[in-house]
Structures are given as C-alpha cells and as structure tokens.
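Appendix B, Record 12. Input sequence as logged:
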Amino acid sequence: MCFLTMSRFSKWLNTYQVKHNVPFRSMATLRELKDRLTSVGNIGKIAKSMKMVATVKFARAEREAKEAAVLEGSVAGFIVV
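Logged structural output:
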C-alpha cells in the first residue's frame, strides 16, 4: 500500500500541473477570502431579488389569465353560432 506524504504529493501535483497545463495557484490571503465571501453574499442577494421579481410577474400573469377566462366565458354567451 502506498501512502503519499505531503512532499511526495506536492511533487506529484507539480508534475501533473505541468503535464496538463494547469495554472499554479497559491494559498488565498485572508483579504481574498473575505472578498470572495462578500461576492458570494452579493450574488445571493441578487438571486433572491430576481426570484422575488419573477414571483410578482408570475402572480400578475396568473391574475390576468383568470380575468381573461372570466371575460371569455361572458363573451361566449353573446356569440351565437
């Protein structure tokens, strides 16, 4: 059974990144992590707002469809075939 130590893993990872043209990434700084968390939170707020807008638009369309169905029924009574 083969156990990878950190140094062996690090060598393997470097070799893999070179062979497969994967960019090297360093450890993120605390500032970068905070910025990333802020960005994710802002994206969540935008998604929530978009969901609210979609809900309002859907409710409006549903209400208009019900009103149209009522009008359709009353207009159908006037038309005699």
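Residues 30-78 form the longest helix (49 residues).
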